[in-house]
Design a protein that fits this description.
This is ABC transporter ATP-binding protein. This protein is α/β, with parallel strands linked by helices. Helix content is about 35%, strand content about 25%. It starts with a strand and ends with a helix. Bound molecules: adenosine-5'-triphosphate and magnesium ion.
């Protein structure tokens, strides 16, 4: 089953800037799909449209069988989002922030405790959001995105700014999320991360999808040992040097 289905999606900002120029791709239920591409390629724009934060200009977008933007209220209830710039409530504590999202999604009160445990946040439960380090703010963002038991998670650069250990923790968490049957669409600039985590990748370049494949297929195509090398070879072939 296709949990995300996108056909010929366009996004034009301010009637001038063509951020997405007719992209098509899908995400199968249960898989981890990574959107890759240089700065400004259109990754966040895509994630924002799929998670109903921004509207498409044209094209077909279906998330969990619901049409975007027409059925966005259904979509919002069922997906979790880790935005590129997560802004928690800075004066509220970790626990209060998570509680807010659990209540918003009408989850059980016990979920607050569970999420703090999963994300290793118990020690910081009484700390105000603004006093957390960048890595712990990310953890809170991920905890909040899991409130309400979503079946699909959008993560925009989930590990940016994390120290190597915390990055591994988030990788394990994403793997665990997949094990629970949750599909994940993530964006990242870390190609080792994409290689390790994703079942399939889509590469966006200047608002167009230039590759849809598995990490292994791309590495084979360019005869490289790592996704990073294969990606760089692809970028070079596209004239981005
Ligand atoms: N609200 C907006 N108004 C006008 N242009 C925008 C807006 N948001 C994004 N853009 C432009 O659309 C293009 C795609 O931006 P987007 O944020 O989707 O890129 P990205 O692939 O997420 O990049 P990054 O890797 O840097 O996060 C860029 O040229 C950006 O400047
Ligand atoms: Mg982005």
């Amino acid at each position: 089953m296709r949990i995300v289905d996108v056909e010929n999606l366009w996004k034009v900002y301010n009637r001038r800037k063509e951020a997405l120029r007719g992209i098509s791709f899908h995400v199968e239920s249960g898989e981890i799909f990574a959107l890759l591409g240089p700065n400004g390629a259109g990754k966040t724009t895509t994630v924002k449209i799929l998670s109903c934060i921004s509207k498409p200009t044209s094209g077909k977008v279906e998330v969990m069988g619901y049409s975007v933007p027409d059925q966005c209220s259904k979509v919002r209830e069922r997906v979790g989002v880790v935005p590129q710039e997560f802004q928690g409530f800075s004066d509220l504590t970790v626990e209060e922030n998570i509680k807010y999202f659990v209540k918003l999604y009408r989850g059980e009160e016990s979920q607050v405790e569970e999420l703090m445990k999963t994300l290793d946040l118990l020690e910081y439960r009484k700390t105000r959001f603004r006093n957390l380090s960048g890595g712990y703010k990310r953890r809170v963002a991920i905890a909040c995105s899991l409130a309400g038991d979503p079946k699909l998670l959008f993560m925009d650069e989930p590990t940016v700014g994390l120290d190597p250990r915390s990055r591994r923790d988030v990788w394990n968490l994403i793997t665990e999320v997949k094990r629970r049957g949750i599909s994940v669409l993530l964006t990242t600039h870390y190609l080792d991360e994409a290689q390790k985590l994703s079942d399939r990748i889509g590469i966006i370049f200047n608002g167009k999808i230039v590759r849809l494949s598995t990490p292994g297929e791309l590495m084979e195509e360019f005869r490289k040992q790592s996704l990073e090398e294969a990606y760089l070879a692809l970028m070079e072939s596209l004239g981005d040097v």
